[in-house]
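lol ok so funny story. i was supposed to be doing the assay writeup but got distracted and ended up predicting the structure for this chain instead. priorities right. anyway since i did it might as well share w the group, maybe its usefull for someone
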Amino acid sequence: MKKLSGLGVGLLCVLALTGCGSTDTSGLEKKLDKLEKNISSLNEKINDLEAVDVAAEKEEAAADEVDASEKKAQELAKKKAEEEAKNQKLLEGKIKVPDTSRKAQEQVTAEFEAVGLNVKFVATNMDNLAVSGKRIVYKGECDYLNENCGAEKFDSTQVGWEKQGYYANKGDTIIVGYSDHEIDGTSGSLSKSNSSANNDTTAEKKAATTSKSDIEAAIKKVDAKYDEMIKKAQGYVDSPSTYDDTAALSFLTDYTELMAEYASLGETIDNSGDELSTSDSMTIYTNMLTKYTKLMELYAKL
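and the output, tada:
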């Protein structure tokens, strides 16, 4: 819309003067004032109408944008539903194999049994894992699953990021590698005596150099760790929001180390003979089985 210009006002004034034969200028001025006010009022109305047009255009554009967003969301939802249906058909009847890395053999066995799978442990060279991670690989600690484990691997391009992993049928036996001795790779390298290929240290030799007092101290240490881990796990179960990715990683690391220490302690006690049969620490060790079960139950809820 166009506003009435000053030229238009001038023309109206000329017309007014032409049509007035009287020499009374005061009357003419009043007519001019009235015309100017009418023109000003018309301009204001034009401004209002233009503002309404702009607002309507903005609303229409916003509505179009919402429609486009909704259409895109619907397309994405449809695509996701189609992918999930495809994944479900691809994985139909299969069981996802639990992760095994950095877990003790006892934990892996329990988790496999819980989903209906069997496990066969095979001693594996994990020197590189210890060195590359600059950490300790504990005796009895399990390795990652690999393509020769007896399960089928599905990657993210097949089943999506959330469901990628190894799958097997109920009752299948999965081969899991584990370290049959402790490997210290914290320095970034291994000494000759510490490598898998040259390690000739047996459990019997270790037991012979471990005194009764050392074993009793180890029992109390592991028992105290169980109490600490159970308390921590119970806290996460009671307050799930506190169990974020950082907490989960920290808990898993502590849990793995505890399981490895527990397994190693069991072998040391077995190889000590009857030396600890009358020790009060054996009662503590026996009661650890209850704590082990309790911790497993809490861990399964996380």
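The beta strands are 95-96, 118-123, 136-137, 152-154, 165-168, 173-178, 183-184. The longest helix spans residues 25-90.
back to the writeup now i swear
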